[in-house]
Amino acid sequence: MRLLLLLPVLLLCLFRPALAYEVSELKAAGLYQEFDPDRLTTQEKKFLQTGLAMEGLYKSPVDGLWGRGSQQAIKLYAVRHGHNDTIPVFDVFALAMKTGNRFAEQKLEVFYSKFAKMSLLIPFNGIEEDERENDFFSLKSTNSSIRYLFYRTNSGFVSQFHQQALADKNIITKPRVVRRNNLRISSFKLANGRNIHIRSDYVAGEWSTIVLIAEDQDKGLLTAVAWSITKGKAPNIYLPVGYLRDGVEKTATFVLDKKEEREKSGTASAKRGPSVEDEGNPEPKKKRVARSDEGAGEPGADFVMPSPEDLRKPFYPLRFSKADRKYLQLGLALLGYFTGTIDGTWGGDSEAALARYAKENPKYPPRIPLFQAYTLGLATLIKMDESQLVYYPAPHMGISILMPYGTVGKEQNRTIAFRDKNSSLSYLLFKEITDSPNITHQELLAGTVFKEKPQTIRKGKLWVTTIKDTTGRITYLRSDYVQGSWATISVTADEKDAALFAAITGSITPGEPAPDPYPSGGDLDDGIIAMRIILGEGDARRTTPDVPPSLSNPFADEGSSSIPPEDVPAPDRRKDLQASSSGTGFAVSENGDLLTNDHVTAGCSRLTVDGHEAVLKATDKTFDLALLHVPSLKTPDFAMFAENPAPLNSDVTVAGYPLTGLLSGLNVTRGSVTAMKGIGGDSTRMQISAPVQPGNSGGPAMNAYGHVVGVVTAKLDAQRVADAIGDIPQNVNFAVRGSMAKLFLHQNGITPRTAPKGEALPPEVIATRLSAITHSIECY
Length: 780
Known about the structure:
Layout: H1 7-14, H2 23-28, H3 42-54, H4 68-80, H5 89-106, E1 108-113, E2 118-123, E3 127-133, E4 136-141, E5 147-153, H6 155-166, E6 176-180, E7 183-189, E8 195-203, E9 206-214, H7 219-226, E10 230-231, H8 243-265, E11 287-288, E12 304-305, H9 308-312, H10 322-334, H11 348-357, H12 370-387, E13 389-394, E14 399-404, E15 408-412, E16 415-419, E17 426-431, H13 438-446, E18 455-458, E19 462-468, E20 474-482, E21 485-493, H14 498-506, E22 509-510, H15 523-535, E23 581-587, E24 593-596, H16 598-601, E25 607-609, E26 612-620, E27 625-629, E28 640-642, E29 651-656, E30 667-675, E31 685-688, E32 700-703, E33 708-715, H17 718-725, E34 733-737, H18 738-747, E35 753-755, H19 763-773, E36 774-779
Parallel strand pairs: 28-35
Antiparallel strand pairs: 1-2, 2-10, 3-4, 4-5, 5-9, 6-7, 7-8, 8-9, 11-12, 13-14, 14-22, 15-16, 16-17, 17-21, 18-19, 19-20, 20-21, 23-24, 23-36, 24-27, 25-26, 25-36, 26-27, 29-30, 29-32, 30-31, 31-34, 32-33, 33-34
Helix pairs in contact: 3-5, 3-7, 5-8, 10-12, 10-14, 12-15
């Protein structure tokens, strides 16, 4: 598939008073057929109607119903571009391409106003709330002159409002007026150059009025927004995969081919658009490279090595999938170039960040070589391997956020606190107990001495406050209204971790759990492979250069790079080893997942569970927890955790495999919870009196109802205490609290089973349950 030119270059070639291409050329390319609207889907028609509205040619509802008004508008568009007798598909595809660029630049999306119960297009690039009262609120754009005013009113006010607006003596154009039972529209222009569109709809038993105001330079955008207004919730407007998008790519390829032909023959003229830098010799035959199925960054049979000419062509964001664009935004954030929302919407901020990464001037129309986007993808792959970021779906909050794998967390009541062990980042997640997050945000603003002016966003379902104090500590406080209540996330970090902070705060996603960020397996994945081959990176994920690979010319010495051979692995002698230590674990899922202590698995080159090979999936040194996976252990018997913590003096029974070589089989002992905290007030531990011995570590502590309330972790060293205080302590043992164990499992993709209190069980039934879920672990 041919790469696309950037739209600023294309548009200069496509849109001018005189024809740049002969009819014979368009016919040969299959781009001169008469436009047939019946080939379009409703979504494609809505997209074109929006584009025609932006051109000032269409002033009717953007509804996908292609009638006389739509056909007349597209005919005028074709005439404007030199086609008087027909509407060639070339013009239609060019309009779609231009509209797509406008959508990307403005971040245009359909917005549903719960206040007004209406939907309309909003350019989210630079939009912010302006004013708010009980029956009124407004939005303004920092990147355009457009302003939005929303009112909830009665019928008397609506009539009076429109009458007063039309009575303005400064109106210089004939107003457009619509008066129906449940609809009022007044549209006109004032002498000061402002364009006004007022629309009132009777929705859900009351009148809602939307007023749009814009200067002349944004008249096209205002027209598109005005005619996108719809009662209730409406689907988004976008360019879907299909006939129209295929035509856009075909048109861009045609323009590129013709431009190259004319430049090589010396026939390119000024009216055909500006020249571009020499794109090299004719494209050589592309080299195929073997590819595996191991995922991102691994070549396979379907991979085609792009030529240097391809890689020098301009970057065009709409050729990449949304997942790929999110991945590039994440990389720009991790590298310190981007501080916006990581959502795959590629607007001006994303383009400027990529330009800074590529060391281009972000103030002018970007002509960033495609290989810079691919090297950014490779750099992102390396940074992701360093940071080990994964999406954490916050339980009971309806929000996902990126966190470094292995982040330490503590849960208490409605609050979850996390701390990254390898950086200054810390998180706090909680549900607001009030109907508004106002108090939380005001307390942050009132209790901080600022180094810089705070940044705030106050929208209907989103509140954000970002501050930097005099010590350089950055705090990002965000509240989203999800699942019927307010969920708040606070992220703090030192200035030295500002890039990681930007990536994490930009990743916050309300709604369904977000998938982990990886290339989608399409164009970006292929580009990463190409960069690895060109740069000689045998395995990018094991290579961390001092500087991210942003290159000026990666083709200076073509053919000199090679993939270094893989190291020959040493013979596997693990089976000859003898177990050096042992411990206990217990099943936490039916798929062969076991929970144990981190110190049980530390330093092991091989682990077995009941003699079966085990894989270490995750560890947490602070909680002293580890997660094992045993592929051959599929069991219906796995732990049921208690919903609530074990109270003081409640009964507990522990099970394990202590003193391997001296004792044989499962050992079960009983005791009680003797303290709610561990040594030094450690709230992640509880103290138990049930006797434990070496080898018990990692075993379950079960309450009287058959539910796990802790993970046995240690016993007090009686001899060392006796040496220190002259007395021997009795049965002072510790267990990781069950809430910490559940949090650790959640962090690592396992949802623990929980159950309420129920009825107390006989001791022998407790022993039977423990026997079914508890397993012996050996470390080699």
